[in-house]
Structures are given as structure tokens and as C-alpha cells.
Amino acid sequence: MSVRPQILIVDDELPLAELLAEILSDFESEIVTDSKEALKLLLDPSLDYKAVFCDLNLPAISGADLYRQVREKRPGNERRFIFVTAGACSPESKKFLEGIPNPTLTKPFDVKTVLKLASLI
Description:
Elements: E1 6-10, H1 14-23, E2 28-32, H2 35-43, E3 51-55, H3 63-73, E4 81-85, H4 91-98, E5 104-106, H5 111-118
Parallel strand pairs: 1-2, 1-3, 3-4, 4-5
């Protein structure tokens, strides 16, 4: 029996995070609604998430800042981020997303798109 890939879902909107976890039910998912807690998990060398579905606009630490800190402290793991956004981004957020190779999942999203992104992991 193989271990299912681990996915971290970081979103301050719990119902949305739970919906993503339900869509990704073929994977073992962990939901975190607090970006500070997410950072602790992402920097923990004993944890190895295959993908991180991360809301771009989070209180405390933004999704972009989570990405930057992971890139600095656990290089290579930043490639696992899939950013979730409502689409209407600030100029800074838009510039950030345009400057990275990571995929973006725009709300409202459909099941097919989520599963397609998950199949890339």
C-alpha cells in the first residue's frame, strides 16, 4: 500500500479550504487557516508536502511572503505552491504572480481545474 501525497491547504476561509480538501480527496490534505502556523509547517524539515494550495491574500503573512520565506529557507520547495486568488489583485500581487512560474487557481474555481493542477504533483 503506497502513501498518498501530502497537500497543504492554506486559506483563512475554512469553508473554501474544506472544499479544496474534498475535491482533492484522493490525496492526504492538511488544512491551515493561520499563515503563521503554515510557515512553521512549511519550514519544518520533517514535513514534505507535494503541493501547497495557498491563498495569496492572507492576514499576518501573505501568500507571497510565505513563498519568499520558503524559497529562502527551504530552496526548491517554493515550486510546490499553487496560489489561490480571487483574481482582483493589487499591483504588487499581480507583479508577484507574473514574476514566478507557479500556477494560479482563480476563484471561483471548478473541480476539473483543481484536479488538473493536482495531477501535476
